[in-house]
């Protein structure tokens, strides 16, 4: 009887240890550990070698309704019809600014910019030859659009939409001459982040690049539930003197 009890305890202990806590590793090409995540979480592939338990990544039983001020939409954000705000700083990085680019396929070394170039309109990832120059100032994502040495300096501001797109987890980013009033931009290491107290983001540096190379903030789980026609990306600053491919 003592032997059976000890075995039962061991089995129960093994069962308990089989459930992983949020943000623990749950898979990968050489992973031999546990793979079961806690209730409400799912095992999300981050890359070939690493998968992670992410809260909210389990298949939902019902779709939550958006908040009253947030309208679910399956249509993309604003079209590329903007007003030129400047001639641009050129192809040499100006002091105090950064290039911002993606580092994963299919947008490897595609650079953040506006469309039309140096104008109000959508934020996109495009060719290195037309890369914009950026900085985060007091929580604002600013794009330098005036010529080198111009006074006063002309900036455009990254504007985040309150309206949600695609999977109800996508916020469009556009450029405006007025400051953003929804959320705060920042850096996590070299990664560009956006945060807002009313939104609990699993990954503060998760973005989508969708049709027409338009850029959206992904407020859901990275590499989970990606909308059709979009790609998951993280975007990072780069401070070499010139942008490159």
UniProtKB/TrEMBL annotation:
Q: Name one GO molecular function term.
A: cellulose binding
Keywords (A to Z) from UniProt: Signal
Q: Which residues does the UniProt record annotate as the domain CBM1?
A: 18-54
Q: Which domain of life is it from?
A: Eukaryota
Gene Ontology biological-process entries: carbohydrate metabolic process
Q: Which InterPro entries match?
A: CBD, CBD_sf
Annotated region (Disordered) at 64-89
Using the record, list the residue span of the signal peptide; answer none if the entry has no such feature: 1-18
Q: Which GO terms describe its cellular component?
A: extracellular region
**Which parts of the chain span the membrane according to its record?**
none
The record's section on Pfam families has: CBM_1
**Start-end of Low complexity biased regions:** 75-89
Q: What is this protein called?
A: Carbohydrate-binding module family 1 protein
Q: Which organism is it from?
A: Lophiostoma macrostomum CBS 122681
